[in-house]
Amino acid sequence: MKKWFAVIGDPIAHSKSPFMHNTWFHEMGIDATYIPIHVKSEQLEEAVAALKLLGASGWNVTIPHKESIIPLLDDIDPIAQKMGAVNTVVRLNDGSLKGYNTDGAGFVHALEEAVGKNKEKKVLMIGAGGASRGIAFALQQYGYEQIHIANRTVLKAEAIIQELGEGIALSLEQAEKQLNQYGIIIQATSLGLSTGENKLPISLDLLQEGTIVADIVYNPLMTPFLLEAEKRQAKIVTGLGMFIHQGAIAFNHWLGQYPNTEKMMEKLIEQLK
Ligand code: ATR
């Protein structure tokens, strides 16, 4: 029987997930389809019941439901539990629902696909919201040795560092002044979104040539932060890889196969141009 999958969120119309997963199904000869479903906060419980009733094999969860879906699931993977957020639901053979979080691991896979493993390099994460938290846990899990988190509200960076049990929290000003210490810099604030303000969270004046600079935003593909870093001869990692790999890891949870991420990168770059 044909399987079906979905992504639920609000807004959802501009999600690239349906294109990505449907392309992979087609390329890999899998008889399945993936649809976007607009679900408002107050409809989440009903939506989950409907997905279950109608036999969805799994779905992705995006803003604003990543936290609120947790009590509606039967089992949560320990990493998602730690992050307090789920972006992927799998319906197991017995009909129960298990939640995973593939965002953080998606970032690390994308980073390593783009520039290789650099676990010894000192990492500076800018931002301490939900996205930063997931990535920080994943970096630690994959063996990155030194993680510093800078945030406008330093207390939030301190809270993540405390949960990690290692690392340093700092202000944006401190991070700016010691920027040349870092081998990897990750822009994980909500600045840089196409609809957001057009400015940088920190100045890149002290950025060293060859530093790896990543952004979690992928639309625009080249954020103001990445454009500035590119001018200073940094190695750029766009947010698109994280998006693709979070989807690929979800796909693998559902179907036990890892889809082609490099070909997808080319296709999505074409679309975002
Ligand atoms: P997400 O879940 O996508 O990470 P979030 O939890 O709202 O989103 O977090 C947004 C991040 O962007 C936070 O680190 C926030 O800084 P504060 O914790 O100080 O609010 C950061 N951010 C948003 N607007 C910013 C701005 N104008 N300058 C600097 N940082 C900003």
TrEMBL record:
The pathway to which it is assigned is: Metabolic intermediate biosynthesis; chorismate biosynthesis; chorismate from D-erythrose 4-phosphate and phosphoenolpyruvate: step 4/7
Output the GO biological process annotations, alphabetical, semicolon-separated: amino acid biosynthetic process; aromatic amino acid family biosynthetic process; chorismate biosynthetic process; shikimate metabolic process
Q: Which reaction does it catalyse?
A: shikimate + NADP(+) = 3-dehydroshikimate + NADPH + H(+)
UniProt GO cellular component terms: cytosol
Q: Does the keyword Amino-acid biosynthesis apply?
A: yes
EC number of the protein: 1.1.1.25
Which Pfam family, just one, is annotated for this protein? SDH_C
What is this enzyme's class at the first EC digit?
A: oxidoreductase
Asked if the keyword DNA-binding belongs to this entry, the reply reads no
- InterPro entries, from UniProt? Aminoacid_DH-like_N_sf (IPR046346), NAD(P)-bd_dom_sf (IPR036291), SDH_C (IPR041121), Shikimate_DH (IPR011342), Shikimate_DH-bd_N (IPR013708), Shikimate_DH_fam (IPR022893), Shikm_DH/Glu-tRNA_Rdtase (IPR006151)
Q: Domain Shikimate dehydrogenase substrate binding N-terminal: where?
A: 7-89
Tell me which residues this entry annotates as catalytic.
66 (proton acceptor)
Q: Which residues bind shikimate?
A: 15-17, 62, 87, 103, 218, 246
Q: Which Gene3D superfamilies match?
A: Leucine Dehydrogenase, chain A, domain 1, NAD(P)-binding Rossmann-like Domain
Q: Name one GO molecular function term.
A: NADP binding
Q: Which residues form the SDH C-terminal domain?
A: 239-268
Q: Which residues bind NADP(+)?
A: 127-131, 151-156, 216, 239
Q: Where is the Quinate/shikimate 5-dehydrogenase/glutamyl-tRNA reductase domain?
A: 113-190
Q: Which domain of life is it from?
A: Bacteria
Subunit structure, per the record? Homodimer.
Q: Which family does it belong to?
A: Belongs to the shikimate dehydrogenase family.
What this chain does, per the entry, is described as: Involved in the biosynthesis of the chorismate, which leads to the biosynthesis of aromatic amino acids. Catalyzes the reversible NADPH linked reduction of 3-dehydroshikimate (DHSA) to yield shikimate (SA).
* The protein, known as: Shikimate dehydrogenase (NADP(+))
Q: What is the lineage of its organism?
A: Bacteria, Bacillati, Bacillota, Bacilli, Bacillales
Q: Which gene encodes it?
A: aroE
